[in-house]
Amino acid sequence: MPDEKTVNENETGAAVPGGDSQGAPAPSETAKRAGRDLSHVAPEVGVAKPDAILTARGVQRRFGGMTAVDVDYLEVERGAITALIGPNGAGKTTFFNLLTGFDRPNQGEWSFEGAPISHKSAARVARAGMVRTFQLTKALSRLTVLENVLLAATKNPGERMFASMFQPLWAATEARNKEKALEILERFRLDKMRDEYAGSLSGGQRKLLEMARALMTDPTMIMLDEPMAGVNPALVQSLLGHIQDLRDEGMSVLFVEHDMHAVRHISDWVVVMAEGRIVAEGPPGSVMKDQAVVDAYLGAHHDTDLGDDALLDPEVLARLEAEEEKR
Amino acid sequence: MEELLRVLTLALGELLAPATAAYALAAIGLNVHFGYTGLLNVGQAGFMLLGAYGFGIATISGAPFWVALLIAMAAGTLFAVILGLPTLKLRGDYLAIVTISAAEIIRMLGRSTLFDDYTGGSAGIRGGDYKGSFQELSFLPDGRTMIGPLEYLNNGSDSWWTRLFAWSLVILALVVVWLLTRSPWGRVLKGVREDEDAVRALGKNVYSYKMQALILGGVLGSLAGIIFVLPGAIAPDAMGRTMTFWVWTVMLLGGAATLFGPVLGSMLFFFVYMIVRAGMRTDVMEFLPIPTQNVDHVAGVLVGVTLMLIVIFRPQGILGNKKELALDAR
Ligand SMILES: Nc1ncnc2c1ncn2[C@@H]1O[C@H](COP(=O)(O)OP(=O)(O)OP(=O)(O)O)[C@@H](O)[C@H]1O
Ligand SMILES: [Mg+2]
Known about the structure:
Number of strands of chain B: 2
Shape of chain A: globular
Distance between the termini of chain B: 50 Å
Strand order of the largest sheet of chain B: 1-2
CATH class of chain B: Mainly Alpha
Number of helices of chain A: 13
Number of strands of chain A: 10
CATH topology of chain B: ABC transporter involved in vitamin B12 uptake, BtuC
Structural class of chain A: alpha/beta
Number of helices of chain B: 15
Strand content of chain A: 15-25%
CATH superfamily of chain A: P-loop containing nucleotide triphosphate hydrolases
Order of helices and strands of chain A: HHEEEHEEHEHHHHEHEHEEHHH
Bound molecules: adenosine-5'-triphosphate, magnesium ion
Strand content of chain B: under 5%
Helix content of chain B: 55-70%
Number of domains of chain A: 1
Largest interface: A-B, 42 and 32 residues
CATH class of chain A: Alpha Beta
Oligomer: heterodimer
Shape of chain B: globular
Radius of gyration of chain B: 20 Å
Largest sheet of chain B: 2 strands, antiparallel
Helix content of chain A: 25-40%
Order of helices and strands of chain B: HHHHHHHEEHHHHHHHH
């Protein structure tokens, strides 16, 4: 794949969606490529992708008698945005933890960019280019916002104990990192908070900071666990824009999200988990109409589309709930 | 009045005393552990005792001063590695349990008759046996010097030379810790203190950073142990749990995660401690219902109460940042 890392000139230069600007930017080459590539992929569980960056096989994780994750086969496409959805307790976070080395499976293996990484430590997975964020944010409270992001920079000679004592050895790297960190912070509108302790940020700001930190590592693949949860709706729109920009810059994105509109809006592919298993996958439009998916979310016997705007209406939801209870 | 002046002079003497420097240095080490990295080392006295033994035994076996110093540092390093290997992968509390018991094991082994030939059992090692090489290093002229109200011999055990060396070591440690903690390396340590998993998720080898911090703080503890025994003798029972407890008090008093906190904490601690002990013995305090033989116990109780009061009312210590600490109280 020669053009993975090719950056679309027009896009990156003005990659700062000023705010609530509606509508996604026109799809770039990479986006179109991913879209095109996946459009020929059959929407079946375990289907092979044209260019998979992550391949998982037979991954199981049990807690006592309960099987939290039981994924037979999954491929995640390179350079695409893949959403992982499913009801609460479906095992999405646990699956994330396994893939990123924060938990150990009872069985199964997976490879990233062709190399097996199922037994690697979390740090090595991250160094291999697969970087995650956490559902329960982990802001480093007593570090400033800027320090949080600077910490994420890779290959800083100043992070080696002996070299760190001699500032000239790392000052230049640090200065470069700082420039980059400020750029990223600006993108997430955290630049004004740069010298505040991260512990003083709001929940939504912490989500943004965590994403900023992950980006600072220059990942090949970024794994976001509910990046939009708690983020101001006005900012969600620009956050979605950022995520698309990342994809357009050639990054692969796998994200967990409960907001169906966000999912429908930006993802190229949707994977649905329920009770640990993958019950459906496919392009967002068709998957949300899939009966197995609707069942998993709303209980059986509904023919509602999950992406349907009517589901935003509390009245409709209440009616659905009542109907479900009557059964 | 004259008596009060005497008490004050004694207390002023404590500010510069070698033991004060030793506690400051040990607390600087503990600060690297706890203040910067969040490691719960509850056995700093173990590092100190091991450093003292390493230095003393090496010197007695004929090692020159600087070699003996290096051996003490190596002993501290080895101890840190042994304690860290099995525990640093686990939750923080495990290190606490292991350090407190390992420190006790060192003391028990030292005072047992097993290694009598080296450690002198519970009687310990006489100062005269290992101080020679240190005192020969002195470039001060013989005689006595009076600075302000303080007067000591220039050379010898409880001398200006010992003070000069001890505080030079403290200053050197401060410089090293300052250089390290303001660097990206120090930033990783603080990240580990705040949330290991977040740092791991960014691709850093958390285990290795924790090990480096444990070794650095432990080596500083070993050096502190040497300073502690240079004016006196190596007595294992003087370097037990109480010592660890005092080092913690000193560090928390001055302010964890601050550069000068440990030094300020140590000076203040021993200054006040002397005033309390000597003060209670003066005629002025005769109205107190405390018999002289109990003065040290009462002072010990006061230390404990002080520690509790700090933790409750000023957990950030004297130099700590209130705002920073407030973030924790969520
Ligand atoms: N450490 C653990 N010990 C025991 N059970 C666990 C553990 N972690 C997760 N589980 C269980 O595994 C199941 C899947 O949890 P997980 O957090 O992966 O769900 P999720 O899909 O991320 O849900 P949500 O959308 O609510 O975040 C849950 O039933 C949970 O109780
Ligand atoms: Mg989850």
